[in-house]
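Protocol step 4 of 6: structure prediction from sequence.
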Amino acid sequence: MVPSSPANSPTASTPEVSPERAAALGRLQYLLDSARPVDIPVVASALSEAELAAVVEASRGRLSAPLREYVLVHGPSRALVALARQVLLHGDRDRYTMERLLTRFDEEVDAVFFENASFTFREREARDIILRRRKGPDGHAVIAPRIKQKLLDAVTAADGKPGEPLISQLAVADDPDLVRALLPFAGRLNARRAATVIATLAAHGLKKEARRHRALWAGRGRDFTVLGLRRFAKPSAKYVPHDRFDYAWNRMPTPLPADTYGRFVGADQSPPSADQLKRIRDAALFSLRTGTMAAADVLEHTRPAALTVALAAGESDDPERPGMRRAANDIRALIAERAAERFADDPKGWAQTITWVNYYQGTLPELLADPDSARDRSISQHFSSRLHTDLDAANVLLAIAPPDITRRALLTENMEATIADLAAGTPLRRVLVEHVLTRGTVPQRQRLAANEATPDSVLSRLLERSEKTDIAITVLHREEVGRDVRDIACTKARRGLPLKNWISDRAHDDPGAALLALSAKADHPDFILNVLRLTINDFDGGGRIAAYTLLADVVGLEAVWALELETTGNLEAMAPYVRATMATGDTVPLIEAAREHPFRSAEADEVPTSPSRTDESLDRQLDRPLEDLIRTRLDGRTDRWLELLDLLQARPEASDEELIAEFDAGTADRGGL
């Protein structure tokens, strides 16, 4: 949900919208992010002016592209004002929305950018455009009378001491009255502002006044020469201030129709670069979000196939890109539908498609039509690794496939290497994990253990079968692992160079883990002594004391004395607590030193398990129930959207899914796919 804050409540500027209605409109705005793009302007046109403004205010700067375009082109003044306030409150990522708003020449919108005495960079840009660069039919700036009067009143109120912000605005104004109000303070202008004032007076037929006002020219001869403006020369012929207003069309991606997108992607058989893949991806998603293409167009034209699959599980929850949930879900639903039609009960076809999707350069429909041909047409490029995403196309396809088909596909011949790749990728699914745990090869289990998305519950089961493998070492080398699992891995890790190296790596930053791994080998004192000989200098402070305490317990105090002497070179350089044990003949000095110098273990900094590696994540489906409900029950039905708005107001306690599910399924327009 996108609730309205008290400071930006729809009721603040639209009193005829009740608080209950405003809350319902806020929920509707969120749901419209997942509507079919072509439906969004139709729904918006059915709202009252006050309701549309409330929807814009509830968006918090996250309007979907179709809704924003509708407001910019067709929106009434109140909705435009609401959008202008969103630009200032939430800082659009670019100037596009602000400049499009200013092309409407709406006095109420212009006034929004002059409300504050002090102003932000974005407001300054808007004021410069309004005061000078945005021209009317007569070639001069169109400045609303009340904005002009507000600036003149500010000069009067300044009592002869206008501030720098006010002077800077008056200096750029393409209006003779505003410029004349500035002339008493012309001595405070720099050369460029003075030249702008001169050019403005000349452009409005006041050249003599410009030349007469010596305060504009005094002391600026050399600076004016740099500007190409000689003393008392014709200013309009010598100095042209920045008057051009090219609003930022080119700062936004361009939505492409299907045929243009097809030419943009091209049929070039050379492998696309990572930058080319990103441009294709952005064009496809933006075109889907704006409605110039449907999911079927994306499938037909997008190449390589891995890019199409990645789009099905893209950045659907990116708050800066509303509409992404629907775009990704439409592609996923269509892929599932096409694959089910093609393979039905054919696990081998699924297996081949999953195997080759990361390497196939053609479109996904071409791969689905004949996955076996990919062996000949594939190249040595792994496209998922170049898609600027953490998801792997093969894993996404595996998640889209029905679980019973997936289970049989993993059992087909020649899938060992593919399964190993799947075990290293994301998203992970339970059917794959169970296959690797019960039937997997050692390389498959190793890659599953190394996968940062693997839950701790799975790591524990892998460690149960790790007696003759180095899976424990693999688990220890993970960036994220639960404390209990790490303790098991320390116990299970086999003695050898990999464990020695790991202990050496962890001795300084996490001495607790290193010592735990050593203490698990207490039955092998020679191993502990050999490791500490290599790593004792890596332990620092309290960690070194703890290491000596362990060595004394397992091997004996004589080993501590010998190692400290070997490390320092002479008795005088030995640590005081070690020399004290030589005097007492027991470990009491070591124990007391350990109490005085406790070491900090990385266990204290352990962070909660991320949602991507919980046990529940293995069963999380890619499909999004809310988007599926909207597609099957609301697409093409403006009447239902408006009825839903009434339901949202009448039953605020009900969830979105509950209310949408009350509409009959299967009667919505399927054109969105």
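Step 5 (inspection) to follow. Residues 1-14 have pLDDT under 50 and may be disordered.
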